[in-house]
Task: inverse folding
């Protein structure tokens, strides 16, 4: 955990220090890829074709775009020949297991060539730099990779079993800590009305507009239409949203506000959602019904 925390600290420090002269203190390959080793071992460099197991974070314009450390899951990438001057794969080929390096890659090259996006994201300019902080954990054969995946799958199953067994008790604790005495509906949804609406009632098949904030029981916000400034629109009762939303929103009138406490079997169940909602997670949504058509 100490090394993983160090990754974020190093990256933040470099972003601050390099804001005016991003390549100061960096070495450069013949193609122009900027790099700086923080830890360098005596191990042999990874070979083309090996599958690299890495802790990796990358940022642009002081904003962290991705972090396998925060996801608590390493990244696996097969090492290939670089496809263009300054390709991040050229940097990966410099590394040996145990090494920790910062790379600077041109944003247009990374997003358009490496990530193969059809266009540059709105938040990026062609002249911007993407800072990668990488720690190479292992360079594996396909057989070693498959063995590692089996270990990862077994650990995930173990963690999921723990989460499944704890979900009910965590929900009870949340309700007690927040003085919520509302009885759950027959489905298991806990519907807490915060403000009664006075407008149109929702019916199955209605198209609604809703502002919301979604949190895990520990308070972690995983999504918010308020932050985006754009409410969500969907048709109620046709499976466009999770079952807990269909049921909860159907109890509201326009202008109403409510809290929906949704057990995992009415949300994302044993699979979770992406890297933000773990399996067997009870979710808490603050919702406001804006419009019904």
Result:
């Amino acid at each position: 955990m100490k090394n993983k925390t160090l990754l974020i600290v190093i990256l933040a420090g470099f972003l601050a220090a390099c804001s005016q002269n991003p390549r100061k203190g960096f070495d450069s390959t013949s193609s122009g890829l900027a790099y700086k080793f923080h830890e360098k071992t005596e191990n042999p460099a990874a070979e083309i074709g090996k599958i690299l197991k890495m802790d990796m974070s990358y940022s642009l314009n002081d904003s962290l775009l991705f972090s396998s450390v925060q996801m608590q899951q390493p990244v696996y990438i097969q090492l290939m020949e670089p496809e263009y001057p300054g390709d991040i794969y050229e940097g990966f080929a410099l590394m040996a297991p145990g090494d920790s390096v910062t790379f600077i890659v041109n944003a247009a090259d990374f997003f358009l060539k490496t990530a193969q996006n059809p266009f540059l994201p709105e938040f990026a300019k062609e002249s911007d730099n993407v800072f990668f902080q990488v720690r190479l954990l292992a360079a594996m054969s396909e057989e070693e990779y498959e063995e590692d995946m089996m270990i990862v799958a077994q650990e995930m199953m173990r963690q999921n079993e723990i989460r499944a067994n704890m979900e009910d008790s965590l929900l009870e604790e949340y309700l007690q800590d927040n003085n919520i005495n509302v009885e759950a509906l027959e489905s298991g949804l806990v519907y807490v009305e915060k403000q009664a609406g006075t407008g149109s009632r929702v019916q199955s098949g209605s198209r609604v507009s809703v502002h919301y904030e979604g949190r895990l029981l520990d308070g972690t916000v995983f999504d918010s239409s308020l932050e985006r400034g754009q409410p969500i629109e969907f048709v109620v009762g046709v499976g466009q949203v999770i079952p807990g939303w269909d049921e909860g929103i159907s109890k509201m009138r326009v202008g109403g506000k409510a809290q929906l406490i949704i057990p995992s079997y009415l949300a994302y169940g044993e699979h979770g959602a992406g890297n933000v909602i773990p399996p067997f997670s009870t979710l808490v949504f603050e919702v406001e019904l804006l419009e019904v058509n």
Q: What stands out?
A: The mean pLDDT is 90. Helices lie at 2-17, 68-71, 88-92, 107-114, 142-177, 225-228, 243-249. The longest strand covers residues 129-140.
